[in-house]
């Protein structure tokens, strides 16, 4: 068939569609753009519906104006500050707005940067902790061989990566029924002169709960008083740093605590932006060592840059600025409150089913988890419920809790902007229906092939 005739042929009779496309070798011949588009489009139909993915924290909806702005700016390279000086200035505006939101003592004295997500932001916060510790140890003539970082056993995997990649010993404080988050309990047992810092999480990935940063800071104050060790805090606010300033305004967790040296967050989670963008801010420039910062010249001046990546998209920076301008504090409060209202509606409804015990209810960030009531059934598990819901399009993950609680399986819902109360009511009806179906089983469901619904 000639190319001209191929263009006239029905879409699925064209070369490329009328045969099985190889996925393990570079193609020899061209194909029509419409055909290549159709192949990719059709393959991704097999993915789940992003709006019904209640496992992910990552944003899946923005308004039409954001979509238009995205299409206008997807070719901008964030690192090219000379070619795109206004985008560079907007990046600067955004982290300064966050420094103000997080109560930096002086926005002018703070320093920050955008990243590709909160994981990179955490890496940069951890690097600054390590380098500050190294510099202080060198100045005192002490060894820098064995740095360690103290955190909850429920940290997101990016902190495990940080410790692995940068040769830092991770010291995990186990969570338990009595201490569901890192709360300062027994913290002195994990800290010594080689501790570069403590990570406090505003919105634990497993459950959505806040770790009490002020209590952790008080525990570190007591440790300093007894040992002389001055240990800083990095707040991993991947989710909560964009929730607490609007929904829990009186909660002290941020730069109001002097021991908090840096805060990271994810713009593409509760910042409301498509993936991927994150942010990290230091309360004062002195906590970001100069030898980690590179100078980039633009507009006849110098702009500091600190990142693991080089070329990366600038469009999400503009989307973040758009949302900051579009919503302001009042709009963000309304958006986050709506998400929390949906989370509380769902958690209340799930608790009333009778088969489950809530681990938390979504009153911190709009995320909550539950477990099967002990003794409720021997015929099914939360993995079976997850599978039943997946057949209806819902992605509601089931997974084991971290070390010391690995025998406990929970299920979790993440409520994001775009999950309306109406859709939530449909979800709750399906959870009730599928739970009732499973409760009617007269023999156990097979357990072969069960696996956690997502990875931390």
From TrEMBL:
<comment type="similarity">
    <text>Belongs to the group II decarboxylase family.</text>
</comment>
<keyword id="KW-0210">Decarboxylase</keyword>
<protein>
    <recommendedName>
        <fullName>Glutamate decarboxylase</fullName>
        <ecNumber>4.1.1.15</ecNumber>
    </recommendedName>
</protein>
<dbReference type="InterPro" id="IPR015421">
    <property type="entry name" value="PyrdxlP-dep_Trfase_major"/>
</dbReference>
<keyword id="KW-0456">Lyase</keyword>
<dbReference type="Pfam" id="PF00282">
    <property type="entry name" value="Pyridoxal_deC"/>
</dbReference>
<keyword id="KW-0663">Pyridoxal phosphate</keyword>
<dbReference type="InterPro" id="IPR002129">
    <property type="entry name" value="PyrdxlP-dep_de-COase"/>
</dbReference>
<dbReference type="InterPro" id="IPR015424">
    <property type="entry name" value="PyrdxlP-dep_Trfase"/>
</dbReference>
<dbReference type="InterPro" id="IPR010107">
    <property type="entry name" value="Glutamate_decarboxylase"/>
</dbReference>
